[in-house]
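Q: Got a minute? One more chain.
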Amino acid sequence: MKQLHHVVVAGLGVLGAQIAYHIAYSGFAVTGYDVNQESLDAGRVRLEQLRDRYGTRALDRDPVKAQAGFERITLTTDLNEAAQGADLVIEAIPEDLEIKRSFYAKLGPMLAPTTIIATNTSTLLPSDMMDATGRPDRFLALHFANQIWRHNTAEVMGTSATDPAIYEQVVAFAKEIGMIPIEIKKEQAGYLLNSLLVPWLMAASSLFMDGVADPAMIDLTWRTATGAPTGPFQVFDVIGIRTAYAVSAAGDATQQAFANYLKEHLLDQGKLGVESGEGFYRYPVGDDQDLGTDGD
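A: Always. Here it is, folded:
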């Protein structure tokens, strides 16, 4: 079986940048692709932040190794250029089924027949996208958690069409880059992590919207009673307010009301969570969660 050497990460949002940098830091050649120069430039800034973090606060705290990882990354807005020589493409573009399907339809013909495609989607099922790739047997989900250097899990979820050998190859790759592979035996919307996390967050937002308690009190209650380091509204800030809005907007009446609250009081004010330095809470420069996440 062909070894994986060259990895493409499509979409350099906050989590996409984390994935790209961590893979490069682990010794792989990485091409980072984004749709336009503005997005690519924003991705470059995130990669530079990650280089500095890895060199001073994360993992080995080795600035030489961190710089070497950074130098293994090539950036481009040319999808065809990115596709050339790719052994594995990890898609981390917006959490929209039609956007993803359109991307795969464009990408597939540019790739070698042996290239594996993985989606980092956090909510969509890979079986809903697999036909658009033109290679359903070489397509599966590989979902990373925010703050990849700390929460080092990689959920691997195939479809009924995924070649078992490809599945095992991706599990092995996850181990190579220092992840703990979470092998999911059947398709499950939300995988394991979000299947546990989302109902908890929805319970918290419902308590808030129903006027039972404010976010600070809800978080204090959870932290005090369970010993957890963060409460649900702190987690909303880490996940990112844009993602929280998108998920809530698709929910019931209470969740839609919460989505409206997020838009009016946070999003419209440029408060995106830890990514921007403020969401439900404020985050000083240098805070250990200052890189946030995106929806994928």
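A: Residues 6-184 form a domain with the Rossmann fold fold (CATH 3.40.50.720).
Q: Perfect, thanks.
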